[in-house]
Design a protein that fits this description.
Elements (H helix, E strand, L loop, with lengths): L1 H17 L32 H13 L1 H7 L3 H22 L4 H17 L2 H17 L4
Length: 140
């Protein structure tokens, strides 16, 4: 009985300790530059902007978001502008067709997920969901 326990303990120790590895930190990678107070901001989105224009602008920004995430360039600014446009577009869709809001929100959420988790595939999927949502949305 003690031999079995000793053997089981040894196997458990080997399996547990065998999973440990060495972590390497790549010193050549640098932290992204911080945003300072001198950064220029884009103008606010007027409430009377037509919905098709808002959706076109969001589509344009999301089209290459996956590439921006890979290259780590201007992602926070792009997401901030998408959010500004979405705040106005969301209200217009909610007022007109609240049942059609879900796919648009899903696209925006995927864009955020891609940016926050550095997952270009999420951003790319968000763009595809947005394209389908725009195509399915009733015109007018």
């Amino acid at each position: 009985m003690t031999v079995r326990l000793a053997t089981a303990g040894a196997v458990a120790a080997v399996l547990t300790l065998g999973a440990c590895g060495t972590t390497y930190i790549d010193a050549s990678k640098t932290a992204p530059p911080s945003i300072d107070d001198t950064t220029t901001t884009l103008p606010t989105v007027p409430e009377d902007t037509p919905l098709p224009n808002l959706l076109d602008d969001i589509e344009t920004l999301m089209e290459h978001l996956d590439e921006q995430i890979v290259d780590d360039e201007q992602v926070p600014g792009t997401i901030a502008r998408i959010d500004d446009l979405w705040a106005v577009a969301e209200q217009k869709i909610r007022d007109r067709d609240p049942d059609d809001l879900f796919p648009f929100q899903q696209a925006i959420d995927l864009a955020h997920s891609g940016a926050e988790r550095r997952r270009p595939a999420d951003a790319s999927k968000g763009y595809k969901v947005l394209i389908a949502a725009i195509a399915a949305y009733p015109a007018g």
